[in-house]
Amino acid sequence: MNTVATAARKKTKIDPISRVEKRRLAEADTRERVTLSFYRYVRIADPEAFRERLVDKWSQLDCMGRIYVASEGINAQMNVPKENWDKFDAWVKSQPELRGVPYKIAVEEGEGPSFIKLAVKVRDKIVADGLDDSSFDVTNVGEYLTAAEMNDYVDDPDAVVVDMRNNYESEVGHFESAITPDVETFRDELKVTPETLRIHKNKKIALYCTGGIRCEKASAWLKHNGFENVKHLKGGIIDYARQVKQEGLENKFKGKNFVFDERLGERVGSEIISTCHLCRKEKSDTHYHCENQICHRLFLGCPGCIEKRGSYCSRACNLISLVPQKHKKTVARLYNEHIRKRRPFKKVRMS
C-alpha cells in the first residue's frame, strides 16, 4: 500500500489533517491515475454496511474520490491508481450491486490530482433533487440518446435541447442552442423546468448533464408532468466526448465541461465562451476558489486579474485574509450576515 495514502488515513479526529496537507500528500503520490465516474439506481438493503465495504476495499487500492451511497443506489466520482485498475475493476464486477455498471472515464486528467482523499458518505438520496419519489414513477425514464443522435437533436429545429446542470456549469460550456436555466441547484431546476418547457410540450426534448445521473430523474419527472417525447444523453457530456472522438463525429458541445473535483473542468470544445468574473472583459473559463477560506467562492478569473489580485474573488477578501486568527470567527459571522448573500459567485464543495 502506498505510504503517502497510508499516512493520510492514519490521521485521527484529534489530529485532523488539513486540506493543504491532504493536497500535499496527494500531489506527492505521483502514480498515474484514472479518473472516472459512475452511478446506479439499485436497491441497497444496508447502506452503512455497503459503505464500509467500499471504504475497506478502495482504501486498500489507494482510491480517492467522493462517493454517495443511499438505499436507492450509488453515485461515485473517483480516481484509481493505474497500477491498481485491474484489481479495482475485478472487485467492482464481483459485487452484486455494481456488476456491469458502466464507467465514464475522464476526458483529461489535468496537472494535479482530481481528488485528494477518499470520502464515502451515506445520504438519503444519491442526488439531491427535492422530489418525493413516492409521488411519481421514477422508473419511467426517457430513452437514451447516443452522441450521434444528440447531434441530430441539436440540428433539428423541431427539437429542444435542455441543459439539466447548474448555471455555473453551463456558463463555461453547453451544447449549441441549448436552453440553460439560470439556477444554482438541480433541485431548483426541477422546479422551473416543466414551466420553462411548457411552450415546447409537443416537441422532441433532449436532456443532458455531466454524467447522466441527473437526467435519469429529470426525464421521469418531465414525463410525469405530461411531456411525452423526452430522451436523454446516455453517459452525459463525459461519454459524449468519448463517442465523438472514437467515432469521428462533429463536436456540438462548446467550451468546457465543469466537473466536481479538483480539476473543475475538462476541455471538450476548443472555444472559451465565458468571461472573467473580476474584470468582466477578458474571456476565461478557468475556475478558482477564493483564497479567503471564509469565502471560498467559485469564480472565473483571467490571467491578468489573477496575477493582479491573486486567487481572491474581491479586494475585500484579500483584506479579510490578513485578519489575525483570533478575530476570524467574528469576521466570518459578519461576512455571512452582510456580504455572502449579495455576492454573485457560487460556493461549491469539493473533496
Chain-wise SSE layout:
Elements: H1 3-9, H2 19-28, E1 33-41, H3 47-60, E2 64-70, E3 73-81, H4 85-94, E4 104-105, E5 118-122, E6 143-145, H5 147-155, E7 159-163, H6 167-170, E8 173-175, H7 186-196, E9 204-208, H8 213-224, E10 230-233, H9 236-247, E11 253-257, E12 266-267, E13 287-289, E14 298-300, H10 303-309, H11 315-320, H12 328-338
Parallel strand pairs: 2-5, 6-10, 7-9, 9-10
Antiparallel strand pairs: 1-3, 1-4, 2-3, 8-11, 11-12, 13-14
Descriptive account of the structure:
With 351 residues, the chain is an alpha/beta fold. The protein folds into 3 domains: 3-122, Alpha-Beta Plaits, CATH 3.30.70.100; 133-255, Rhodanese-like domain (Oxidized Rhodanese, domain 1, 3-Layer(aba) Sandwich); 287-342, no CATH class. The chain has 12 helices and 14 strands. The chain has helices spanning 3-9, 19-28, 47-60, 85-94, 147-155, 167-170, 186-196, 213-224, 236-247, 303-309, 315-320, 328-338; strands spanning 33-41, 64-70, 73-81, 104-105, 118-122, 143-145, 159-163, 173-175, 204-208, 230-233, 253-257, 266-267, 287-289, 298-300. The protein has a 5-stranded mixed sheet. Helix 7 runs parallel beside helix 8. 40% of the residues are buried.
